[in-house]
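The material for today's practical consists of a large collection of protein records. A record pairs a protein's sequence with a compact description of its fold. Instead of coordinates, the fold is spelled out as a row of discrete tokens. We will come back to this pairing of sequence and fold again and again. Here is such a record, shown just as it appears in the course material.
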Amino acid sequence: MSQQAVLIIYTGGTIGMTNDPATGALCPFNFDRIAKTVPEIREFGFRIDSYTLPEIIDSSDLKPELWQDLCRIIAENYENYSGFVVLHGTDTMAYSASALSFMLENLEKPVVFTGSQLPVGKIRTDGRENLITALEIAADYMNGKAVVPEVSILFGDKLFRGNRTTKINAESFEAFQSFNYPPLAEIGIHIHYNYGAIDYSPRGGSLRVHNCMDPRIAILKIFPGLRNEIVRAVIDSPGLRGLILETYGAGNAPTESGFLELIREASVEKGIVVYNVTQCQGGSVEMGRYETSRELLNYGVVSGYDSTTEAAVCKLMYLLGKTGEANETKKYLNSSLKGEITVDRVGF
């Protein structure tokens, strides 16, 4: 590649919407004209191209097929660009960033997700700064290597690891947070990179894409008064292969015998992979620390440590699609594959 170049991939979302002068309604605009809307990008000394999905989506309609499309676009253009900026709706951005972190093996170039709370054409938009900063990070190289060679989310004045991030606010320009992992960069007058937090682990070869995501999973949030009939309905769902338990505190759940028997049945008899993540925004699951989680551990429930729910969903889909075997899936759920949980890192 003779010069730095960044590809913008527009999937949909607020950042790409503008007012139709005839109707006043919001509609997507053509990103081939992005330099007219955000003239500041002309100041960059690298080429910027754009690709708009044939059918843009509201992020609330996200399906795993979009992750496959994004991986395909990145793989097909990988040798021609220094980095990629994915413009995405905020509601499910953390899911998509988590998914691509697992699906893109041996990634050595930046894939920066960003979006906005207001359309980029609005006077007071946050989209303009988010886009400009995301482009700068996607093109930032040092000694011939990308400064941030991983999947990340840029929003407001922070750059976060994609699989450590959660949307926390529907209105604030600081809409995302990473509670259990420090920012990869903080943005002010300068971009201050946290080099110790960025993934510089050795890659094992050229880029590989893993598209076999298995969506046959469910999430069961524990709450006071949860009826066993509901748990029964979930674990009896046809074809269910994985179940994420959103538990209290450090991984605690009811000790009532009927509930525990259903979890035992799911894990031991049905072979469903049960993954325990905390409902708390910060902190970690420590199964066995309290009596209320010890029985879950005895029944083969896997600890999610400090995983976000978004990362847990995507990791479980990825592993079920890749391994096709419950015990193998459990083994790698307990391990850090792409820095998504705080345990010793392993290869896969």
Q: What stands out?
A: The radius of gyration is 21 Å.
